[in-house]
Amino acid sequence: MQPIIRTLPKAGVLALAALSVTACGGGQNRPADTAYVARDVETLYAEAKNRLDRGNYVLAAGLFDEVERQHPYSPWARRAQLMSAFSYYAAADYAKAIQSAQRFLTIHPGNKDAPYAYYLIALSYYEQISDVQRDQKNTELARTALNEVVRRFPTSEYAADARLKLDLVADHLAGKEMEIGRGYQRSGRWLAANIRFRNVVEQYQTTSHAPEALFRLTESSLALGLPEEAVKFAAVLGANYPGSDWYRKAHRLVQNHAPGVTAS
């Protein structure tokens, strides 16, 4: 699977716009331009928003953090928390984006912008998904966070986008299982390979990897001396993907190595 390119979905753009229209303490590592200077909240917030609009996301995030630090009990502080999270997301500082969004939810769990905070957390994990050769911890975290968006806000625009991303996440996780399974096959660890391919068929049967997984199960079953199982998997492959190259290859395998065998 190709690396996921960082983009802001339409739902995120709309949420940011809503926050900006509505709106019109930081850590020790703040950018230099956010060093403490007492300013009224409107001026400080406007400067943060200006930096965000100009694409200076790191500085914008620091200034939004400063809004909260200097004016912690003002309505602007609540807005600034979520704008800070978005700014960190736009800067690809996903750890800080998640931290800021989670802090917003801890302080304002019932706020009308809570759905966007959950969505921003999910996006931040999603953007950290790595290729299938690497650890998939962030992929699992993305799946959990996206499912949380769908569970909590099923009719929202965020849930609609989350469902689309969940399909891509499932395909990615299936790809990881396939990568491991093929590795086991190459080293002759047929039982371990069989387990991985079964995981794909049972847990990710709607992904693009399902046809190959069924073919690999045909291969590994023959290698394990289970011709009836091999015939069964080839038959399932033929029933669901009759015109695929994977089925043609599986059919040749069982014809050559399990002639006359029927599925148990």
Characteristic key phrases:
264 residues; mainly alpha; Serine Threonine Protein Phosphatase 5, Tetratricopeptide repeat; elongated
Concise summary:
The chain has twelve helices and no strands. The protein is mainly alpha-helical and 264 residues long.
- List low-pLDDT spans: 1-8, 20-30
Number of domains: 2
Span between termini: 35 Å
| CATH homologous superfamily annotation of the largest domain | Tetratricopeptide repeat domain
Give Rg in angstroms: 25 Å
Based on helices, strands and strand pairing, what is the structural class?
A: mainly alpha
Instruction: Round the mean pLDDT to the nearest integer and report it.
Output: 86
Q: Assign a percent range to the helix content.
A: over 70%
* DSSP strand content: under 5%
Number of H/I helices: 12
Task: Compute the number of strand runs.
Answer: 0
Give a quick account of the main beta sheet: strands, pairing sense, barrel closure.
none
Shape: elongated
CATH class of the largest domain: Mainly Alpha
What is the ordering of alpha helices and beta strands?
A: HHHHHHHHHHHH
CATH architecture group name of the largest domain: Alpha Horseshoe
- CATH level 3 topology of the largest domain: Serine Threonine Protein Phosphatase 5, Tetratricopeptide repeat
